[in-house]
Write a structure and sequence with these properties.
The structure is a single chain. The chain is of the alpha/beta class. The protein has one domain: FHIPEP family, domain 4 (Rossmann fold). It is 39% helix and 19% strand. The protein is built from 3 helices and 4 strands. The strands form 2 sheets. A two-stranded parallel ribbon has the order 1-4. It has a two-stranded parallel ribbon with strand order 2-3. Strand 2, helix 3 and strand 3 form a beta-alpha-beta unit. 24% of the residues are buried.
C-alpha cells in the first residue's frame, strides 16, 4: 500500500515536485522526536507558517500539495500539520519509487 499512495499525486514516471525540509530543521525535528518531547511553541508556529507559504507556492506552480520528509518524521508532521492544513499530504521518502527524479519546489526552514 505504501508505494501505491504516491501514485495518485505523481502519476507516470516523470519528475516529482515536492515541498521539503531543510537539513537543520529536519535534524532538530528528529532530535525532538527521539527525545520524546513535543515541538517548542515558537518552532511549531514557524513550521506551520512556512508550510502555509510553501503550499501557496505549490498551488501557483500547479504542483501537488505534498511535503516529503524523513520516514521517522512522517507520523508526527502529518498529525501536526493536517490539523490546520487538511489539503497537505505528508509522504515519507521511503514511499517514493527509487527511479523518480525529485525536485524541491519549496523548502521549509532556514528562516
Amino acid at each position: 500500500l505504501g508505494r501505491d499512495i504516491p501514485k495518485q499525486w505523481f502519476p507516470g514516471t516523470g519528475e516529482v515536485q515536492v515541498i521539503g525540509l531543510d537539513t537543520p530543521l529536519e535534524r532538530l525535528l528528529l532530535q525532538a522526536l527521539q527525545g520524546g518531547g513535543g515541538l517548542e511553541p515558537g518552532l511549531a508556529d514557524r513550521l506551520l507558517a512556512q508550510t502555509q507559504e510553501a503550499l501557496a507556492r505549490q498551488e501557483m506552480l500547479g504542483a501537488p500539495p505534498v511535503l516529503l520528509v524523513n520516514h521517522a518524521l512522517r507520523p508526527l508532521l502529518s498529525r501536526f500539520l493536517r490539523r490546520s492544513l487538511n489539503q497537505l499530504v505528508v509522504l515519507s521518502n521511503m514511499e517514493l519509487s527509487d527511479n523518480r527524479n525529485i525536485r524541491m519546489t519549496a523548502t521549509i526552514g532556514g528562516k
